[in-house]
Design brief:
The structure is a homodimer of 353-residue chains. The first copy, chain A, contains twelve helices and 14 strands. With 353 residues, chain A is of the alpha/beta class. In chain A, strand 1, helix 1 and strand 2 form a beta-alpha-beta unit. The structure holds 3-isopropylmalic acid (IPM) (2 copies). One 3-isopropylmalic acid sits at the interface of chains A and B. Chains A, B: One of its GO terms (cellular component) is cytosol.
Chain lengths: 353, 353
């Protein structure tokens, strides 16, 4: 019997509630197979700051590096917004990504048939949407030097090296090979020097993938096309901040930000987390949607542990729960047969695995 | 009788066709009032490069500075995409904005009742949307130094000085005073130093406008909220690249990018232009929608010339044409009674002024 070591980072706000449902589902699916999980719970974000004075204690990095994968809830909240920058929860998260070296952030945007009416876009526009944003995660303007500010000026640098672009591009092309074999690279090459290097480099990498069709789009146009006709996209390859913006935008196609998972990979250990935040306003009420986190656990099974069959079971269980009309609060208006709590939804999905 | 001097920049692609309709409407409305127009046509963009080797000849800057306002079509096209950066049409446009000093780009996103079905968003989500993106236009990462690239690295700098933020913030607050008195400032202050200065400075300026409610939103969330619930916004205040992305996204709320005008102001001479591009694929076919340009001419009357009554007439004429079911190709599917050409649409609106 194989035991996978999972570093669990529950974080702040609704983080603990949704992670509890994900482990419930993981344990349920494991019992059908020949493996189980050993969880090591570690701190990051506001709760880590409160307890240790540091939003990312060294212990958390160590635990992550000694695990098979990291399952992560969400961090942050107004409570910590006025701390000095390096003490804020977000700083912990950014340092964590950097320490682990997870340069590729994969954010699928998929529309469930059952929830096609939940989007603010017309059903015919979103039905069947299945795209993947591949976002560079540890470079670009998030980390570029020089950066800083004084009384009268603030500055950050959007910088990419060729090597950084090459590796994320390979990532996107490899993913496209498993999908519809189309990559759309997003940049602002008509204005930015860094985007010109980005575009040229992506072109070069593309030569190694003759079966994949590569197109380019300016980021402003992409923001428009994502709403106008999202089905035109298969894999969207972007830098850090453009990917931040576009993947959040894309998440709205699905109708609720509570549905979409993500994986941050590229290094030995990957991080799996919902794309939504810690939603402090609804924390502790048992109304958060755990599906994004449960689907992140499924991505973890698939990408980190190679347990594809178990991942398939979770995905099928999520679909079945939705199909049968189980809905958390956020989706209560959309063909709900039964509105259920966070933990009820977790139990239903666990049962169906 | 007053004569207004208008510098006309038709530009590339559909630029000439749509500008011709705007001047048709301007002349028609002028004939009802005590003023007329003297147009000076000058070159910018690809056509300027073809003729003079420079996408922005000095003559164009001079003509603009000697005018009462600039009415501008669109520039660019694949034909010029492989020129060296400084020869490209876009470089001409960016230099033009900078030379004129038009630091405030105003991009209204309004949904016409008559076209509420034309959006890819649900009618109930977009009906009644009336927001204004106030985008800083001559600073930020578009112009920041250092910038450049070599074989292995590319870099640009997102930089704002306090003074730059103060002046665009005043602009946004003043506009909000004439509207619903709400400003939402968009930044990425949880990651970027330059955004922290932005946020603090906007807070300071807000103190001078006690009647205006100020909120802040991260740019990723804003990209999401614009689709989830666009009616929450009145004035959105943003930097250059965030404004580029968000205003293009917002334009989709209206159903066609062929509908929305913009004004670039803040200096002695303002530039009035549709937000769409030069659409070389449909150029010369007489199917482009001239409404965005006609509405830009209306903004010019209002903001540059103080001819509010004439501007109101144009706005009413546009609405009437739409209400009566006249549609250009791009909107032919949406309650069209008659599909008309670019110049027919211009004539109808001119008649109705
Ligand atoms: C919290 C924030 C720093 C983070 C980011 O911008 O990367 C978040 O928006 C995300 O996308 O994971
Ligand atoms: C053509 C391009 C340089 C320009 C910009 O990015 O400012 C355009 O997208 C716009 O928004 O006017």
């Amino acid at each position: 019997m194989k035991t996978y070591k999972i570093a669990l980072i529950k974080g702040d706000g609704i983080g603990p509630e949704i992670i509890d449902e994900a482990t419930k589902v993981l344990d349920a699916v494991a019992s059908c197979f020949d493996f189980d999980f050993k969880y090591e719970e570690v701190l990051m974000g506001g709760c880590a700051y409160d307890e240790t004075g540091d939003p990312l204690p060294q212990e958390t990095i160590t635990a992550a590096l000694n695990s098979d994968a990291v399952l992560f809830g969400a961090i942050g909240g107004e409570k910590w917004d006025n701390l000095p920058r390096e003490k804020r929860p977000e700083s912990g998260l950014l340092r964590f990504r950097k320490e682990l070296g997870v340069y590729a952030n994969l954010r699928p945007a998929v529309v469930y048939d059952e929830l096609v009416n939940a989007s603010s876009l017309k059903p015919e526009v979103v039905s069947g949407v299945d795209l993947m944003v591949v976002r560079e995660l540890i470079g670009g303007i998030y980390f570029g030097e020089p950066k800083g500010r004084d009384e009268n000026k603030g500055w950050n640098t959007m910088v990419y090296t060729k090597d950084e672009i090459v590796r994320i591009a390979h990532n996107a092309f490899n993913i496209a090979m498993e999908r519809s074999k189309r990559v759309c690279s997003i940049d602002k090459a008509n204005v930015l020097d860094v985007s010109q290097l980005w575009r040229e480099t992506v072109e070069e990498v593309a030569k190694e993938y003759p079966d994949v069709e590569l197109t380019h789009m300016y980021v402003d146009n992409a923001a428009m096309q994502l709403i106008r006709d999202p089905k035109q996209f298969d894999v969207m390859l972007t830098g850090n901040i453009f990917g931040d913006i576009l993947s959040d935008e894309a998440s709205m196609l699905s109708g609720s930000i509570g549905l979409l998972p993500s994986a941050s990979v590229g290094a030995k250990i990957g991080v799996y987390e919902p794309i939504h935040g810690s939603a402090p306003d609804i924390a502790g009420q048992g109304i958060a949607n755990p599906i994004a986190t449960i689907s992140s656990a499924s991505m973890m099974l698939r990408y980190a542990l190679g347990e594809n069959e178990a991942a398939d079971r979770i995905d099928a269980a999520v679909k079945r729960a939705l199909k049968e009309g189980y809905r958390t609060q956020d989706l209560a208006q959309y063909d709900a047969k039964e509105v259920c709590s966070t933990s009820e939804m977790g139990s239903i999905i666990a049962n169906y695995t």
